[in-house]
Design a protein that fits this description.
The chain is an alpha/beta fold and 454 residues long. The chain contains 16 helices and seven strands.
């Protein structure tokens, strides 16, 4: 049995009643210049708002340190740093999009933020932030290459640091989907490559714009305090945000792959601490640098080998439902949606992931609130959680059919309507309850009706 999902714009997609069976979308229509201009504008706004998302905060603090040191730089050098930072963001977005389109062309089903579905990537990224935290806390001075400038060599390192910080901003920003980004990304990935790159270029420019504007207006930076001893205190304070990011990443590993991989990751942090100790204890000794590099190579080896050895077993041992999908929330499947709608029950689907901070905030601020859960129960809504923490082709295809390519996505299905209502990516209890109030009233629940049984 097949249903038809009609999206805005008049496009219809067939959805099979079997779990995860979503038919491929029809050929992409011709690109409208008006629609493209609108999407590019949304992408730029989404990039601007991305600077306010919690996943980008650690990198913003790094740039804050750089701005506080800007009093020692000339206007031309300051502008150059801003442009190099923007170049790092642009190049990183282009590389990510090229990889994503290339893998999709090869037959892979991937969406935005796909790299966070790899335990190897999570290992390496958490190790990077752990090292940055150790450096900012004062164990060794590798962090100086990100924020300082002074002779010719230091200036080169400073430009490299600006570029690297732009790369890092993109890496940590990909698990977040700011308002306006969902529509832009979903549209872009369904269009020809040239349009896709145009949209993501606008997104990158929006992310880079605030810092670039500050560097192009040096007078504004004079409002910042002058460099001094207090900078060391600020660096140590910033390290707390780095370690907080490490805690989040290790939690993601534990949620997705279990305690075995978590134990390996925590143990590997000891290797990084030893490497940092060698760099800090003997900063000018080549042999100490060699030892640190060997230890870091060992960490990279563990990051690649451990998930391959333990990841499959850990995944098999994990329960089918997400740890947060208990009692009320049930695991998503296309078949569960069809069964509930056939029984006359509305369905609310939370497309989420452990590595998506916006998802976690929305769940705690809105979806898990008592008044919202009571409204779900009163409306006899079936609650399904589509956990995209690990790669799931069925979820990826369904997101594409909804015109999205990443999480969070919140879809409210109503019996008799083929087009679900997509709620905003930033939720409040009022937004959810307002959507539920529009559902048709049911006087008598169906036999065996329960809001937690799809």
């Amino acid at each position: 049995m097949k249903g038809v999902l009609e999206l805005s714009g008049g496009r219809n997609y067939e959805i099979a009643a079997t779990p995860g069976a979503v038919a491929a979308p029809p050929p992409v229509p011709a690109v409208s210049l008006v629609a493209l201009a609108r999407i590019v504008g949304l992408a730029f706004l989404g990039g601007l708002l991305l600077n306010l998302m919690p996943c980008v905060f650690p990198v913003l603090f790094l740039k804050g340190l750089a701005l506080c040191r800007s009093g020692t730089k000339g206007r031309r050098e300051l502008c150059a740093h801003g442009l190099v930072y923007a170049a790092g963001i642009l190049v990183s977005f282009w590389v990510l999009v090229a990889v994503l389109l290339g893998l999709r062309a090869a037959g892979a089903t991937l969406g935005w933020g796909f790299q966070f579905q790899s335990p190897v990537f999570l290992f390496l990224l958490s190790g990077l932030f752990f090292l940055l935290g150790l450096s900012l806390a004062g164990q060794f001075e590798i962090g100086i290459s990100l924020t300082s400038a002074g002779g010719s060599l230091a200036a080169k390192q400073g430009y490299a640091g600006s570029f690297f910080t732009g790369v890092l901003a993109v890496v940590v920003a990909t698990p977040c989907t700011a308002p306006f980004m969902g529509v832009a990304i979903g549209y872009a990935l369904a269009q020809p490559a040239a349009v896709t790159f145009a949209v993501f270029t606008a997104l990158a420019l929006g992310l880079a714009a605030p810092y670039v504007v500050l560097t192009l207006q040096p007078a504004w930076t004079r409002l910042l305090p002058r460099p001094g001893v207090w900078m060391d205190v600020l660096k140590q304070a910033v390290s707390l945000f780095m370690f907080g990011t490490v805690i989040w990443l290790t939690w993601v590993v534990a949620q997705a792959y279990g305690a075995a991989l978590l134990a390996v990751l925590l143990s590997s942090f000891l290797l990084l601490a030893v490497a940092g100790w060698f760099l800090g204890r003997w900063p000018a000794k080549r042999w100490a640098t060699v030892v640190a590099v060997i230890i870091l190579a060992g960490f990279v080896f563990v990051s690649v080998a451990a998930p391959k050895k333990l990841g499959t077993a850990a995944e098999a041992a994990m329960p089918a439902a997400s740890p947060t999908a208990q009692a009320t929330w049930q695991p998503w499947s296309a078949d569960a949606v069809q069964r509930a709608l056939a029984a006359g029950q509305p369905v609310f689907v939370d497309f989420t992931a452990s590595w998506c901070l916006s998802c976690q905030v929305n769940e705690r601020v809105a979806l898990d609130q008592p008044q919202v859960m009571q409204a779900f129960q009163a409306a006899h809504v079936v609650l399904l959680k589509a956990d995209w923490t690990r790669q799931d082709p069925a979820i990826t295809e369904t997101l594409a059919a909804l015109g999205r390519s990443g999480v969070p996505v919140y879809a409210l299905y109503t019996p008799g309507q083929s087009d679900p209502e997509l709620l905003p990516q930033v939720l409040t209890p009022g937004i959810v309850m307002n959507a539920l109030s529009k559902l048709p009233q049911r006087t008598t629940p169906a036999s065996g009706d329960s809001s937690n049984q799809p």
